[in-house]
Amino acid sequence: MSVAKVLATVSGTALKPGVSLNRRYYSAEAIADAVRKAQPRLADGSMPLSMRSHHAADDDSTRIVGRVRSLTVAGDGSARFTADIADTEHGRTIASLLDTTGGTEPFLRGVSIRGLWEGRIRKIKGPDGADAEQGDSLSLTGLDYTASPGVPGAAVDAFAWAKDGASETTERVLITESVQEARVTITEETAPAPVLTEADQAALPFTAPHVLENGLCVTCAAVTEGGNAPGNGKLPYGDIQYADPGYQSDKQKRYPIDNRAHVKAALAYLAKKANAAKYTPAQLKRVMGRIRAAAKKFGIQVAAESAGWSFDAPAQVTEALAEHLGMASCAGSWSVRASNGPVDICLSSYSMDPEDLDVILRAAADAACKALAALDPDMDGDMDVPGVSSDTDPDGDAPGESAPDEASPT
What we know:
Layout: E1 3-15, E2 18-19, E3 25-26, H1 28-44, E4 50-52, E5 64-73, E6 79-86, H2 89-98, E7 111-125, E8 131-145, E9 155-161, E10 167-169, E11 183-187, H3 198-202, E12 212-213, E13 216-217, H4 218-221, E14 242-244, E15 254-256, H5 260-270, H6 273-276, H7 281-297, E16 300-303, E17 309-312, H8 319-324, E18 334-339, E19 344-349, H9 354-375
Antiparallel strand pairs: 1-6, 1-9, 1-10, 2-3, 4-5, 5-6, 7-8, 7-11, 12-13, 14-15, 16-17, 18-19
Helix pairs in contact: 5-7
């Protein structure tokens, strides 16, 4: 009988309740049931819960780098694991990447389950309100290492080298060629994002609105290290172009025009009389000229400029862009977006009958306009609804909250 040494031991979180990045919903009850069903397999040892170097290893036995020793349920409903790493070529590679001894930062922490949905697989509304996949129950078959876990928080959080001489008998990994009905194999590793060309990136139809305060983007300034903007908590952030190079008394640069989101925000916020009034007519003309030039560069069509309306130019959705946006099919799909700056209304649908597209698209555009008009009839960038505070309606043009009381009878 051959002997395989235990090189190191690790522990961490295998699965957490919630919706994964692959849009699968794992309830605390399903996780607890999966852990319970795995206990006999862990105790028996004849079919160990193996750990592979990565999911794509499939049935390459040389890529089995360890096995799960125990599974427990934590107080928050997460599945906790402990595991051994085998003293093999690939096991040594994985251990060196996970090593945290001496306070060093690991090169790898992520783990990803292998499992099976059992019974009926269906689409449900997840806790975030979006569609998610769920099965009647979940069975775990293994745990693999990955740099991109599909379940946030699924990771190794403790590592220790085994003592010299620790060893155990080698166990063979059993395989089967049968497929059980109504069982769907799942892995929780996120696929790498598609690489978009410059044309694809320019054609992205949706950009999250950014919040400007006195012409400065507080959304970007608040982004900390590791985010997607050069924010450092200071304003203005980054070495970028601004429509206002410093016309106001504090000489602060305002209205960034380095991307589509900022240009749209600048159009909306300078449509407010209070913001435009901070500039002389000549200064405002120069500021708006720079913003309009940037809008043209980013394919934004400006209409009804006094109201701050802007429209993205039509763009072809390529296969890579569709995958980036999560669109299974773009046939008969549409999106209508209306914004006055603070409020953004978006109506969309995918894969509708093309024969109905013209009628529904026109109705959706009408509905979006009416919805925005109900909130801000004069399109001055605030909320003109009864009962709002002065922060939401700074110019005080919202109607009264209620009709005046009738005179009491005498």
